[in-house]
Automatic annotation (TrEMBL), chain A:
It comes from Granulicella mallensis. It comes from the Bacteria. The keyword ATP-binding applies. GO terms for molecular function: ATP binding; ATP hydrolysis activity. This is Osmoprotectant transport system ATP-binding protein. GO terms for biological process: quaternary ammonium group transport. Pfam families: ABC_tran. Keywords: ATP-binding, Nucleotide-binding, Transport. Residues 6-240 form the ABC transporter domain.
TrEMBL record, chain B:
GO terms for biological process: glycine betaine transport; transmembrane transport. Its main location: membrane. InterPro entries: ABC_transp_perm/SBD, MetI-like, MetI-like_sf. It comes from Granulicella mallensis. Pfam families: BPD_transp_1 (PF00528). This is Osmoprotectant transport system permease protein.
Length: 248, 209
């Protein structure tokens, strides 16, 4: 189980020209739990996620991983301890699945045999057959590619897992399969996980806590089971928008 | 025809060899300058505009004029072949530089993101991700540069650097079309061969997505 937490302390981020993408965000993700960052496009959820592995440097405030200030940590070491999954998987098209999955180990100079063994183990973990290892990304379906993306993120056994709309590009059936697989997997491996999504159902299915962002601010921070009954105005609006077509 | 070949065959062979040598040396140096400089420009993008502009201007100088302009330069002017190679480098530089720069910048930003997030250092990212993905674009630049060099190298004969241009210039001076063709046909074949071989390599390096 993961022991590292992720904490945002009054994090703000302003881009050149003065537009503020994040305003005074304070939030703690408990070790081994999953928090969903929910919100419409442009609400700042991806930007917030990317401050954790220092792809974005906040203008003010601090981001702490395992109590360590991200801006004061060696960025290479920091990133090697954090898994990162993006939409459309971001697999390297010129590398085999095995090499993609084992990249984190390749970078830390592990021997080939160890990398191959680890890649095989990871493919099994995300429910892919072993013979996938020698194939290339273009030979896989979208869902399979996304599984490989997840396997790659988990290969170095990171404490923290960041996921940015991981299933956004998938059809509903594949998406549901992936959500089931991920939930099951997270329960087994227990990472401190932040997942960005605009899909309320996905957030409720996968996360322990749901944080709603609006224009760079946190407008709701609730345990997943409180979301539907919440009196929080912003959250009620989000829930209502999701259930427009439903019987509710 | 056989009498012609008998008479000029060995000359054609020698001059083809000279031509190849001029082109190959120029391409070697142009690559040694152009590839690292192109990579550097992707890291220092403020420099890209002025540097590419200079390379662009070099490219537009008529080759005969460039050879003439370089003639009085000390060291270069001492040896015709040396001067020719320097001028050829000037022409080869732009396609190499431009394609290296554009090829690396055309790599999907999401892949750069992932590379960084995996904890790749700058050089690792370059070698493992950027160069392999830009390889076919870079090679296309090398191909354009080579074909240009083979063509421009014929003019090098005007300053006595040798190469197949020698036959062409002699043919023109003596109004002997056969002699012009004896220089022009092998030069064209060289260009076609270089184009074909590098084109094949370019296809092989293309990454399927």
């Amino acid at each position: 189980m993961a022991t590292q937490d992720v904490e945002f302390a009054q994090v703000s981020f302003t881009v050149e020209g003065g537009r503020q993408l994040l305003s005074d965000i304070s939030l703690r993700v408990e070790p081994g739990t999953t928090t969903a960052l929910l919100g419409r496009s442009g609400s700042g959820k991806t930007t917030l996620l990317r401050t954790v592995n220092a792809l974005v440097r906040p203008t003010s405030g601090r981001v702490l991983v395992g109590g360590q200030d991200v801006s004061k940590t060696d960025v290479i070491a920091l990133r090697r301890g954090i898994g990162y999954v993006i939409q459309e998987s971001g697999l390297f098209p010129h590398m085999s699945i095995e090499r993609n999955v084992g990249m984190a180990l390749e970078l830390s100079g592990k021997p080939k045999a160890e990398i191959a063994a680890r890649a095989a183990e990871m493919l099994q973990l995300v429910g892919l057959p072993e013979e996938m290892a020698k194939r290339f990304p273009w030979q896989l379906s979208g869902g399979q590619r996304q599984r490989v993306g997840l396997a790659r993120a988990l290969a170095s056994d990171p404490e923290v897992l960041l996921m940015d709309e991981p299933f956004g590009a998938l059809d509903p059936l594949t998406r549901a399969e992936m959500q089931t697989m991920l939930r099951d997997l997270l329960q087994r491996v227990g990472k401190t996980t932040l997942i960005v999504t605009h899909d309320l159902e996905e957030a409720l299915y996968l996360a322990d806590r749901v944080v709603l962002l609006e224009a760079g601010r946190i407008v709701a921070n609730l345990a997943a089971h409180e979301v539907r009954e919440s009196q929080n105005e912003a959250m009620r609006a989000y829930v209502a928008a999701t259930h427009r077509g439903g019987a509710a | 025809m056989s009498a012609f070949l008998h008479r000029y065959g060995s000359q054609i062979a020698r001059l083809t060899f000279e031509h190849l040598w001029l082109t190959a040396s120029a391409m070697l140096f142009a690559s040694l300058i152009g590839l690292p400089l192109g990579i550097l420009l992707t890291r220092q993008q403020r420099l890209a505009r002025p540097v590419l502009a200079v390379a662009n201007i070099l490219q537009t100088i008529p080759s005969l004029a460039l050879f003439g302009l370089l003639l009085p330069v000390p060291f270069l002017g001492d040896r015709a072949a040396r001067l020719a190679i320097v001028a050829l480098i000037g022409y080869a530089l732009l396609p190499i530089l431009r394609n290296t720069y554009a090829g690396i910048l055309s790599v999907d930003p999401a892949l750069i993101d992932v590379s960084n997030a995996l904890g790749m250092k700058g050089l690792q990212r370059l070698v493992k991700v950027e160069l392999p993905l830009a390889a076919s674009v870079i090679l296309a630049g090398l191909r354009t540069a080579t074909v240009t060099c083979v063509g421009v190298a014929t003019i090098a004969a005007a300053i006595g650097a040798g190469g197949l241009g020698e036959l062409i210039f002699r043919g023109v001076a003596s109004v002997d079309n056969g002699l012009v063709l004896a220089g022009a046909v092998p030069a064209a074949l060289l260009a076609l061969c270089a184009d074909g071989v590098l084109g094949l390599l370019e296809k092989r390096l293309a990454v399927r997505r």
